[in-house]
Amino acid sequence: MVDEVMGYVGAGLSVHLVGPRASGRSELCSLVAERLEDDGLIVLRLSGHRAWQNEPFAALTAAGIGGAPTSAPRRSIGEMTAALSKQVSSGTVLVIDDADALDTHSVGALRNLHRQRRLLAVTSSRHRHPVAENTLMLGISPAVQVRSPALEVAEVHEVCRSILGSPIEAGSLARIAMSTGGLIGLVRAIATVGPRAGVLEQLDGLWRLPRRTGWAPELATAVEPLVAGLDQAGWDGATALAVTGPVPLDEAEKMLDRSVLDALFANGLARHSQDGPGTGVVGLYPPLVGDYLIAEGSAFGLVIARNHLDGDQRLLDHHTRRPRGADAALLHQRSLRQMADEVARARRAWTEMPSSETALPLLVALRNTAAPREQIEEVERRTPLTDSQESAWMLAWFATWKAVELGDLTAAKTVLDEGLGRLPTFAATLAATKAHLEFQTAYVPELPTLEPDPRDTVGPEVLGIVAAERLLAAGQVEQARNLLESQHPAHAHTIGLHAFLVGLADVLGGDLDRAIEFAREQLEAANQSANAVLIQNHAYLSVLGLSIAGRLNEASQAAFQSLSSSSVAAYRDVAHTGILTLGAEIAMAQGRPEYARSLASQIGGAQVAFGPWPGMVASIMAPNDGRMPSLRELCELVGQRLDAGYVTGGIFLAVEAVERGVNQNKHITRAAELATATESPLLQGLGAYAGTTAAGDIDGLREAIVTLADAGALVFVTRAAISLAILQREAGDLAGAAETLDTAWERSEISGNRSGLFRRAATHVGLSARESEVLRLLPEGPTTANLAADLEMSTRTVETHLHNISRKTGVSGREDLARVATTWLRPAPIGDYSPGSRHFTSGS
């Protein structure tokens, strides 16, 4: 942000920095002023204070401008303008914090001086709508408006980790990001006060939010400045919105007077999210304000909310685009309230009449809100079984929960086996569920052979799902597609699982664009139906497809959205493990090791260590007993996956192994051989990549890269090109390797920030610390003498370092060295983790 502001100022433009309280505006103003002074410019700092707004020239007087003479209590406007003119010499930059709170006399003097000679200013203010006519921001031009940023989740993690000293559990991190709206002041407050107030608790090295909200009375002083200035009507209205949560705009207008809503909007406390069709929703921003008002708000506001909630409150309309920033925070808060309401409704229905029909909605709602295990076991214990499809499906639900959530496949099989004796009519549902759970958590099972009873409508659909899973696990994509096209499931859950497999077949078949778009459509549908299992499945598929296609920024955002959703729909399954694993790998590829470590630290807590699809092996990114798996252990994992029948997952894992340094090995060779027999161009390319890299076959690797490019797998094209460059270097062709890396960098532009992806190449170059320091400064264009002075070295030593850098990289000439220093040889962020000669770097 400072760089952006400085760029505008350097071009002669004033900058109006706008944002809510707690967004870091004042800190940014201070940082800009310090940077300007470091650059040798004269800076005049002013600030507005609402307590001084009725005091003429208060801001200028506080800055030491035009002190009042003894003969009169105050100076005239002309005298103050003259005094200001003397203070503001040519080249002076004004930095004015809280410019919206300046007294009108100071605004007049500044605008008057600007008419005489153009001022250059950096101002900060809150959003004010409608815009006031006498604001300084309308009086100084030419100018640009820059909005203070809402922190992304990775930045929230950096802020929290710097304060707490250790990572935060991913779901809790997402909840902090959402509840604070990404406002840095509130993030810092939670991280600072949270451990002492019981908001944050440390467990197994991770900080977590143990309660549903991140609120504690100790946080009031951080939140109260945001609501300061509201009159009683505004206070009542804000409290009502806090209790109801975000509501559609037409409902907000029925609940509150238009003048009250306008006041909340004008103060920046209410936001209108226009995501999707209809009128959108209105809610408090940031949501932490709502938590504060629920505890501290007005009694009358509670009455307004209660009267509103007595009526039928329709749910939030389906959203057709993915929300971000304030919209995401608003919709997240809305979802929390809806899920809590759903639990209450479902519990009332089940309590009045315990049955499988009433139990299933309650079980889904309990899982969506991460209810304690005891509550689910109570439903299992007290719900009678009948010879019905609903009872069979309820047993399937309990078995899935035990196998996936609790990691107890044996207990799950017991539930299903006992059900076979009690519900023989629906044996197909129970047997197919058993095979599906074995596939999800342990191995590829044989397909059950039984003739379904005509009354069992779900069983045949699940059997079809298992049959397609088996084919995709073996890489037989065309056979799986043909089978899926012949299936027409009618049950909502099997429709979702069928759609997941259709999308996965497109990924493995090389139709990545179609797979990504399809996964997004299915994820929207799953979100609308609040089906936690399908939300995770389609989110995983979206992250997988985007990452393979090399669209790392989009993949990272998709992973975050899924993880923030999983803090609401807190369903932990193998897809969740896959999202965390892929998210950590993407973060590493983007050069964000701290965020990668935060995600990886959660994977180890998975109850099921392995899943059937790529990325669903917890130990790949999660250190085991403080260490990453050794090369031998990685090879054994590849063999274990292949032995269990997971050919697709085993081939992806073989690529990981060779990138981390595995050479020729029987398991890698077997994976490569199995890949050639698949019907997937992606798997064929990956198998060839793994096999040729392990064997050091440069020509074979070039052919594998072509195969991967034809499959649209840009991220693996880039990774394989990096491996090719390493093989070229090992063969002594340093110039050829540098050319390969240059091309790989240029062609991977779609990936955005991918400095971490190229760390394997930089590590192989092996620059010393001093050489890296010299290289880091080269893009700034200093002479050798200036480099020597900056680094406190002799000119001869700098020249020696430059010669060594050229020798190690195969790149000659200062200009070319400066170029690679900003591309594939860019210095890695501090804190890269996990050892490995080809993929990871040492350092922690």
TrEMBL record:
Keywords (A to Z) from UniProt: DNA-binding, Transcription, Transcription regulation
Gene3D superfamilies according to UniProt: Winged helix-like DNA-binding domain superfamily/Winged helix DNA-binding domain
Protein name, UniProt field: HTH luxR-type domain-containing protein
HTH luxR-type domain residues: 760-825
Lineage top rank: taxon: Bacteria
A Pfam match: GerE
InterPro entries from the UniProt entry: P-loop_NTPase, Sig_transdc_resp-reg_C-effctor, Tscrpt_reg_LuxR_C, WH-like_DNA-bd_sf
Cross-referenced PANTHER family: DNA-BINDING TRANSCRIPTIONAL ACTIVATOR DEVR_DOSR
